[in-house]
Amino acid sequence: MNLRVDWRASSSLVGTVVKWLAVAMVFPLALAVFYGEGVTTFLASMALAVGIGWGLEQLDDDPDLGAREGFLMVALTWLAVSIVGATPYVIAGEGTVAHPVNAMFESMSGFTTTGATVMKNIGFEDHSRALMMWRQQTQWLGGMGIVVLAVAILPELSVGGAQLMDAEAPGPGIQKLTPRIAETARALWRAYLGITALEVVLLFSLHLAGLAPNMTLYQSVAHGFTTMATGGFSPAARSIEAFSAAVQWLIVPFMVAAGTNFALFWHALNGEPEVFGEDTEFRFYVGVLAVFSGLLAVLLFTGGTAEQAAVSPLAGEFEKSLRHAVFQVASLVTTTGYASMDFNTWGSPAQYVLFVALFVGGSAGSTGGAIKIVRWLVILKSLKRELFTTIHPEAVRPVRLGGRSLDERAVRGIYAFTLLYFVIFFVATMVVYLDAARVGMDLVALDAMSATAATLGNVGPGFGLVGPMNNYIPFPASTKLFMVFLMWIGRLEILPVLVLLTPAYWQS
Amino acid sequence: MRVIIIGAGEVGSSIAASLADTHEVVVVDVDGERVDALTYSEDVLAIQGDGTSISTLREAGIDEADMMIASTDDDETNLVACGTAKTVDDPFTIARVKNVDYLETWQHAADRTAFGVDFMVCTNLLTAQDIVRVIGLPAARDVDPFAGGTVQMAEFEVGESSPVANQTVSEADRFDSLTFAALLRNGDVEIPRGETVIRADDKVVVIGSPESVQEFAHEIAPRETPSRNEDLVIIGGSEIGYHTARLLEERGLHPRLIEHDHDRARELAEELPNTVVMENDATDAEFLAREHVDEADAVVAALESDEKNLLVSVLAKQLGAHRTVAVVESGEYVSVFETVGVDVAVNPREVTAEEITRFTRELHTENVALIENDKAEVLEVEVDDESVLVGRPIREAVADLPEGFIVGAITRDESFVVPRGDTVVEPGDHVVVFVDRDALEAVTEKL
C-alpha cells in the first residue's frame, strides 16, 4: 500500500520532543536528591526518554512537515509523551499506579490536564515526593501545550508551527500575537509561567502569614503546577479540602485565569488591559461562572429539595455555601477538577448543575478542556439568528462576535465539532457501560456518564463512583485504556486524532 | 527589523517568504483566504484589512515598523498606502508600480520622496531590463545592475580564443569607462593590478556602463553577443515590449517590434527611432516566415496574455528562431514554458520581488551582488562627508584601505564617471566597489 503521509518525518519530530522530555525530568530528579529518595527512577526514565527519542529521530534526519504530517506529529507527540511520562510510575513500583495500564492512565490524565486518578493512596506514605511532583508537573507541561512549548524552543518547528499549534490549541483557530510563531509560543508560555509563579508565591505567603498551615513550599509549587494547567491533581488525598478557606478563596481567581484566553493576558501585559472588558468570550465566560455559582450557592444554602436522600451539609451556612459553590463551579467549568469538599454528599439538583458544567469548558486559547465558551456563544447566537430568520426569511444576518462577523464555514465547523463531541460522549458512555457489564460491574447512570464526560472533557472527577474523593481504579483495564483514548482525543479537540482514523487521510 | 507588506499576492508572498527568516514580517491583504493561507504557510503575521487605511496600518504596528513595502497589483493603492504610512510614522517605504510615468515623476522629484515613497520599483521597467540582459549579454555568466541601471557588473569566462587571453590587465583595459574588478581563478578571488595576466579559463568580473560592458562582451565573445546587425524581434508593443526596445536602442542595437494595434504601432514608431515597427498579428505564421523571424537571433514575446506569448514563442522556435524569451505573468507557468521549449521565461512579479528583497536586505549599502559563493561582494555605497574616499584622488584613498578592494564605477547625478587613479570623489556620489570577503568589514566601515 502506498502511503501518502510521510510518517517518518512526523515520527522524527516526535522523537525530538520526547528527547527533550528528559530535561523536564531534571526537576523531580533534583527533588529526589534533595529528599534523599533514590535517583534510579528518574535517571532510568531519562535514559529511556533520550533513547526512544533518539531512536525515533533516526527515522528521518531532515524532517519536512506538510499539513497532514502536522496532524500526525501532534497526535503522536501526545501519545508518545504520555507513554514515556508513564515510565517513572512503573519503575518506581509504588502502589496501584505501578501497573502499566494504570501508569498509562495516570500519565495521560496528567499531560491532558484531566486529573482523573488511579492512585489509591494519594500522599507520601506510599509514594516518593519526587514522583508526586512529577505527577503535578506532567499537568503543567500539558497545560499550555507540549507542542506549543516545542514550537517555542525548537527552531525546526517554526515554519509549520502555526499549523501544529492550531492542531493542539483549545478552541477554533489560533491567534498569532507576533510575526513569528515561535515568539507567540514563547509569549504564551511566559504569561503561563509568570501567573504560575505568582500563584506559588501567594500560596506560600498565606502559609508564612499563618493562614494556611498545610500549604508548605512543596504544596504551593505542586498546586501552582496544576491550577494554571486546569489539571486538578493534588498531592493531598482530600484535594483542596485539606487546606484552609483562605487557600480555597485564593485558588478561585487562578482557576478563572487558567480558563481565560492567554492571548488576553499578553495584550494586558502590553498595556491594553481594556481587552478583558472588550472580549465577548471573556465577558460571557465570567457571566456563565456567575450564573452557575449563584444558582449553586442558593441550592446549597437552602439545602436543596425535601425529597432528597442526602440533605446538603451546607444548609444555612452562607460563607461556606458561597465558597464551595464558587470554587466548585470554577473548578468544573474550567475543567480543573479540584474539590473543596466531597460534592457527592450534595443533593441531586446541585449535582446536576455541576454535571452540566462538565460540558461548558474554558475559553479558546486557555488551558481548559471540554467544548469551550466561544463555541457555546456562537451556537447560541446562531440559534438566535435561526429564530429570527424563521420570522424574516429574507433577512441576511451574519453571526457577530465582538464586532467581527464570523465566516459561515467557521460557524458550520463549530456546529460540527459540538455535535461530534456529544455523539462521542453518548457512544463512549455506552462503551463504558458494556465493558462494565462484561466484567459484572455495577454502574449508576450518572456515574457512567460523568466518568465519560470528565475524561473526554479533561475535567477529572465525576460523581458517585468517580467522585472527587474517589478514583478510577474500579474500572476494568480495557475501560481504562478506552478512557486514555478519550482523554487523548479530548485534549486535541477530537478532529486531529479522528482524522488519522480515516482511510482518506492515508491515501491521496 | 519589523517589515509591513501590503498585498499578499505573488509579489508580497514571495517577499514575505524571503524576509521571514531574518525580519519580523507583517502582511496585510484585503482577501481573507489569502491571509489564512499565509498564516499557515509562512512564519509571518497576516492581517486582513485595507493597507490604505490608518486603522489597519496601526493594527499592523506601523508605529514600530522600520519599513513598509506596498506590493499590491494596483499602482494607486501602493502609492496611497505609502503616503498613508508617512502620515502616521516615518518608516522606510517601498512601492511597486507598473506605470513608468509614476517612476519618472518620483525620480524627477529632487529629494526622492514623491507620494511618500522612499524607493520605487517599476515592474515594467525591471522586466524590460531583465529581458535586455538576457538577450544582450548571453555570454555573461551573471549580470547585475547598480545605481538604477547606470552601472552594470558582469562576469565573463575567458575562452582559449578570446582576444584578452594571455594579455595583462593594462593591455586588455582599452575600453572606455570599464574597470576590471576581479579575476576568479580556481575558485579564488584575485584583485587585478596592471601587470596581472589574464589566462584562459579565468573568469573576469567587470564593472562599467552598460554600453562598455556590451562592447567588452562583444570583444571577448564575438560569436555569442548580438551586434548592430543582429536580428532581434520583439513581439507585442506592451509597456514591457516598448521599454525592451528602448533599452536595446540605448545599447546601439536595432530591434524589430511587431504590434497588431494600428494606433499603438504608430505611437511606438514615433517613440522609437531605431526600431522597425511592424503592424501585424504575430500569430500569423505566414507573416513571420515572410519577415524571416526564423533567422532571428532572439525573439521576445511580450504580448498581453501568457497564452499568446506561449503560442508565438513556440511558433518562432518552430520556425527556427535561435533564442526565445517570453514574458509570463503567472509564476506557476514559468517552468511549464521552459519545458515546452521557450528558452527563458521572465516573470515580472518574480523580478520585482527579487529586486525589493535585495534592496531590503542591504538598505544602507544600496545594492549587493555576491561573487563566487560569498567570496567577494560588490557594494553600491552612497558616499557622505565621513567617508575615507571623499575629497581626494582615489589613488590616495586606496592607501588607507586594506588590500582586496577596488573602485569599479562612480555615478554622479545619474551619470557615469570613470574612476581612475586621479578621480576625486565628491559627497553624494554613488560608488560601486568590489570587495574581497576578508576586507569587507574594514572597508564598509571606512566608506
From TrEMBL, chain A:
Membrane topology (UniProt): Multi-pass membrane protein
Entry's localization field: Cell inner membrane
GO cellular component: plasma membrane
TM segment ranges: 12-35, 41-59, 71-91, 140-166, 187-211, 249-270, 282-301, 352-378, 414-434, 481-506
InterPro entries reported for this sequence: Cat_transpt, TrkH
Pfam families: TrkH
Keywords recorded for this protein, A-Z: Cell inner membrane, Cell membrane, Ion transport, Membrane, Potassium, Potassium transport, Transmembrane, Transmembrane helix, Transport
GO terms for biological process, alphabetical: potassium ion transport
Top-level taxon of origin: Archaea
Similarity remark: Belongs to the TrkH potassium transport family.
Name of the featured protein: TrkH family potassium uptake protein
The organism of origin for this protein: Halorussus caseinilyticus
TrEMBL record, chain B:
Domain of life: Archaea
Domain RCK C-terminal: 141-222, 366-447
Matching PANTHER family: POTASSIUM CHANNEL PROTEIN 2-RELATED-RELATED, TRK SYSTEM POTASSIUM UPTAKE PROTEIN TRKA
Organism from which the protein derives: Halorussus caseinilyticus
Lineage summary: Archaea, Methanobacteriati, Methanobacteriota, Stenosarchaea group, Halobacteria
Protein's UniProt name: Trk system potassium transporter TrkA
Record's function text: Part of a potassium transport system.
Keywords of the record: Ion transport, NAD, Potassium, Potassium transport, Transport
PROSITE patterns linked: RCK_C, RCK_N
Coiled-coil parts of chain: none
Any Gene Ontology biological process: potassium ion transport
InterPro entries with a match to the protein in the record: K_uptake_TrkA (IPR006036), NAD(P)-bd_dom_sf (IPR036291), RCK_C (IPR006037), RCK_C_sf (IPR036721), RCK_N (IPR003148), Trk_Ktr_HKT_K-transport (IPR050721)
RCK N-terminal domain location: 1-121, 229-346
